[in-house]
Specification:
- By secondary structure, the protein is α+β, with helices and mostly antiparallel strands.
- The protein is built from four helices and twelve strands, in the order E-E-E-E-E-H-E-E-H-E-E-E-H-E-E-H.
- It has a domain of about 160 residues: Ribosomal Protein L3, Chain: B, domain 2, CATH 3.30.1430.10.
- Helix 1 runs antiparallel to helix 2.
- The longest helix is centred in the middle third of the chain and has 13 residues.
- The N and C termini lie far apart (about 50 Å).
- Belongs to the universal ribosomal protein uL3 family.
Length: about 290
């Protein structure tokens, strides 16, 4: 068969392909959740991959009820802490924060990341936030949470990762009560408080960085063949575009930054939640070690 002809592999919808500004993914869209109020996100540190033998429970599958070997990703999820509740108001220019209530108890490593507020009264700030909710000015509530990587022996850092997590489910009054109680009681919560086994999740993360790469690896263009390769360049593109328009278009596959991009994978099934002993492999994961929890 002849080789297929194509301008490139890879979507132009992910441009510009630059390095992510932070290792903490930015969630730009949160789903509407039913049921009781709860946090809609949780952070973890990837340990590696392995496989499990599980029963296929898909009703439309011809292998329903049979055992299958499935690849799984092991993620360490130590308890997180909620340190503040932030209220947002809907404006013509999008959602803008109008007030926030900070707890008075912070983890000893949190000042590595944030300039912590001083002389703040959580009770006064919480009362102001509740009054804004009663007045109908608040359109969304999000909790400022952070990880505690110092509790994991295989994560080589102490600096916490800080993020905002939306509070979903129930009415706005119920969300405010839930979030204020969570922050006021110390804010510690585990992954079991947010997700349950069998649930489908959207997972965001930063891909492995590969530095500057050429167009063959970055865009999947074909290497030059035959006489074109004997000109001295085998891994370059044939040309940068037409004479007119007299500029190089952004659609031309060129060399540049590869990897270390934020990507989101949809509908990942949470197979199980357990301690580190259930997910460990003999000798630990390569480049990570034993799983703590």
């Amino acid at each position: 068969m002849p080789q297929p002809s194509r301008p490139r592999k890879g979507s132009l919808g992910y441009g510009p392909r630059t390095r992510a500004t932070s290792e903490v993914p930015r969630i730009r869209s949160w789903p509407d959740d039913d049921g009781s109020p709860a946090l809609q996100g949780f952070a973890g540190y990837k340990a590696g991959m392995t496989h499990v033998v599980m029963v296929n429970d898909e009703s439309n599958s011809p292998r329903e009820g049979m055992e299958e070997s499935m690849p799984v990703t092991v993620v360490e999820t130590p308890p997180m802490r909620a340190v503040a509740l932030r209220a947002y108001e809907e404006t013509p220019y999008g959602k803008k924060p109008i007030t926030e209530a900070w707890t008075g108890e912070f983890h000893e490593e949190l000042d590595r990341t944030l300039s912590l507020p001083e002389d703040e009264s959580f009770d006064d700030d919480a009362e102001e936030l509740r009054s804004l909710v009663d007045d109908g000015r608040v359109s969304d509530l999000r909790v400022v949470t952070h990880t505690v990587p110092s509790e994991l022996r295989n994560v080589p850092k102490k600096k916490p990762d800080v993020m905002e997590t939306r509070v979903g489910g129930g009415s706005l009054d119920e969300r405010a009560d839930f979030a204020l109680d969570l922050v006021g009681e110390g804010g510690e919560h585990s992954v079991e408080d947010v997700f349950r086994p069998g649930q489908y999740l959207d997972v965001s993360g930063i891909t492995k960085g590969k530095g500057t790469q050429g167009p063959v690896k970055r865009w999947g263009v074909q290497k030059r063949k035959g006489k074109h390769a004997r000109q001295g360049w085998r891994r370059r593109i044939g040309n940068l575009g037409p004479w007119n328009p007299s500029r190089v278009r952004s659609t031309v596959p060129q060399q540049g930054q590869t990897g270390y991009h934020q990507r989101t994978e949809l509908n990942k099934r949470l197979v199980d939640v357990g301690d580190g002993n259930e997910a460990s492999v003999d000798g630990g994961f390569v480049g990570h070690g034993e799983v703590d929890g």
